[in-house]
Amino acid sequence: MNQLLVRGGTVVTMDKERRIIKDGAVAVQGNKILAVGRTEDIARQYHCDTVIDANGMAILPGFVNTHHHGNQTLLRGLGERFHLMDRLTKIIWPFEGGLTPQEAYVSTALGCIELIKAGVTCCNTMEAGDNANESFKAITDAGIRAEAGQAISDRPDAVPESLQVNPEHAIRENEKLIKSWNGAADGRIRYRVCPRSAFSCSEELLSGLAQLARRYDIGVHSHADEDWAPLQALLKRTGLPDIEYFHSLELTGRKSTMAHCIFVSDKEAKIMHETRTSAAYAPLNPAKSGNGIARISWLIKCGVPVGLASDTAGSNTNLDMFEEMRVAGAIQRGTTLDPTALSTEKLLELGTIDGAKALALDDSIGSIEAGKKADMILIDLRKPHLTPVGKRLVSHLVWSAYASDVDSVIIDGKLVMEHRHLKTLDESDIVDRANKLSEGILKRLGIEEKPVWPWIE
């Protein structure tokens, strides 16, 4: 079995003691970490087939992106002035409902490339409609780890006909997807049931998905308390807000992740804490869309598990988890008038070990420890904006680093990116195909691309 040694870097372990090891090394066998320690000790003990020189670099556990939509990546930059519901109804949903299998593959592959180049080694992604298989194939080919599922809805007052499903048929199809994809790619992919939202799904559909999740012991991924109008519509229909409604249908729990959680009530926060239901915090997209700012520092104080997320490039416009850390810290501190609302250390935890906890994966990823999966990133510290380092490394990683500073990425023990060169997908080919496909998609689906300023061909 191949052994890999990453040596000579500063290892930010994110273990329980939060050890940072200068001139550290990580030994890997197969897809697991064998040992972590000082380079001289690890190199003496382990003679590995492949050695990676991490001199001048930080070695971190890969980022865990707790909420993403890969198949929306080709929507980047559209609908900038729309509120969420307008963007959904006029752009995102028509786009998702009209994609061909090839377009879904390329869009998801493009997102995977961006995630990996930004240091994300695991994502929790919700892929739409009948093309979910193609998105899962792209995830497999990219080499990223993923909690992945098919986004489904059935209420005609919530989503267009192209995205509406028959509940009974949808449950059968999801069971097929579970059998095909849960544990696929040598265990890198785990399936989750993904009701799009409480508002957009009938009780019949939600109950059926809850039964599937219990039967196969898999996770749940949805949006909750994201937008005021759907929340009020759900209250009128059921008498319950999102989290309470999900809880009444047994869709909460340690393996349940709810994106956004902007309007979570005190009672819902208590439910999330007691059931260990997690919140996926994507700070930039809701603020950018004028949707609101989740009270994440309060949720954390309430004992709710929270992980960091980028959401979709189709709304956020990028998948840079470094930026999400910075925005999260800035807006939580700014809105609470408290510079300690989210500490710098906590922000790095949200992107790594806390993200793993939010997805119930902290027994295998999220920190660099012996026995865990070998998911690591190398960040080049030899940059003006990261100098001087000293003992300010954690501060620099959160407030100064960019996605472009990620030099190499290891996922499941495999070197997926080396010195910014992706070793799985053909990056230039995917970028070319994405550009060619994008214009045709918009024309076919009647989605208007309005430039901000006069555009002269």
Describe it for me?
With 457 residues, this protein is of the alpha/beta class. It has two domains: 3-62 and 367-422, Urease, subunit C, domain 1 (Roll), CATH 2.30.40; 63-358, Metal-dependent hydrolases (TIM Barrel, Alpha-Beta Barrel), CATH 3.20.20.140. The protein is 39% helix and 22% strand. It contains 17 helices and 17 strands. Strands 1, 2, 3, 4, 5, 14, 15, 16 and 17 form a nine-stranded mixed beta sheet that branches. Strands 6-7-8-9-10-11-12-13 form an eight-stranded parallel beta sheet. It is globular, with a radius of gyration of 21 Å.
Characterize the largest beta sheet: strand count, sense, and whether it forms a barrel: 9 strands, mixed
The CATH homologous superfamily of the largest domain is called: Metal-dependent hydrolases
Give a count of the beta strands, DSSP E runs of length 2 or more.
17
Please give the CATH class of the largest domain. Alpha Beta
Instruction: Give the helix level as a range of percent.
Output: 25-40%
Please indicate the count of domains. Answer: 2
Q: How large a portion of the residues is in β-strands, by DSSP E?
A: 15-25%
Report the total helices.
17
Instruction: Say what the CATH topology of the largest domain is.
Output: TIM Barrel
Compute the CA-based radius of gyration: 21 Å
Low-confidence stretches are: none
CATH architecture classification name of the largest domain? Alpha-Beta Barrel
The end-to-end distance, rounded to whole angstroms, is 56 Å
Mean pLDDT, to the nearest integer, reads: 95
Shape verdict: globular
Derived from helix and strand composition plus strand pairing, the structural class reads: alpha/beta
